[in-house]
Amino acid sequence: MRPADSSTRATRVLDLLLRPLPPHWREKAADYLVLTRMDRPIGALLLLWPTWWALWLAAGDFPPWGALVIFTLGVFAMRSAGCAINDFADRKLDPQVARTAGRPIASGRVSPREALIVFGALLAFAFVLVLFTNALTIKLSFAGAALAAIYPFTKRWTYLPQVVLGAAFGWSIPMAFAAVTGTVPPLGWLLFLGNILWSVIYDTEYAMVDRDDDLKVGAKSTAILFGDADVPILGMLIGTFLLAMLFVGQRAQLPWPYWLGLLAAAGLFGYQLWLIRTRARDACLAAFRHNNWVGLTLWIGIVLGLAVK
Fold this sequence. Notes:
The chain is mainly alpha-helical. Helices cover about 75% and strands about 0% of the residues.
């Protein structure tokens, strides 16, 4: 049994890669991969793009290979660790939600103890990667680990877990600047704040898929907080995010390719607002996934802008 929101393409790839393993190992390995959302790479991509924005802006060009490899691997490790601790935290809620009832812990295929072990192992791997950077980056990594561990529990006591998610997903931004430049300039913190806005946008779209189920089980989210005003509020958040990224481009003195990328991103957001206008579940999920193209478009704009600068 796979979660209802698994990517069909990613699932086929995982099945192909696991095929040489003995049946028992294959099933357990598949459960661990689903636990860490390897069947849904969109989350890793939404974490990867801001990290790459930061690496390119910090370097002012193509970043050092060492930093690029460390942070790219770290993105996948930390995202997977976050998913493991999220499912541990939601182990009593997920069975009550149609979209998440098939997750490994909710369906009993992975124990909560196993999830904690996977979380610890991935966290340790990510920390080993950080040890190859510098002292400031190592110090910042502790705050990043704390945010990743705290986020899954915030939906119990606040309607703003998406803000904490944004901070956790965006903490790679100050770390990237620290690793490349040895400091975190105002540009880094501005980009970090912009990423929090973006995370609230796409994770609210995601939360709109589960809003009815979350209300029944007592989970909190910005989708519930915004209520019937969700679409216009998302429109305002999108405008604020685009304004923040405009300031990023100005402070980094990026030329015309970046501004074309920002204009294209505005068009992509317009399409998302059109998708979610009726608040249909499938449309909200499609809008959430569509943010991958926003992240990619902005990264291309940054890369090309720095190339012709």
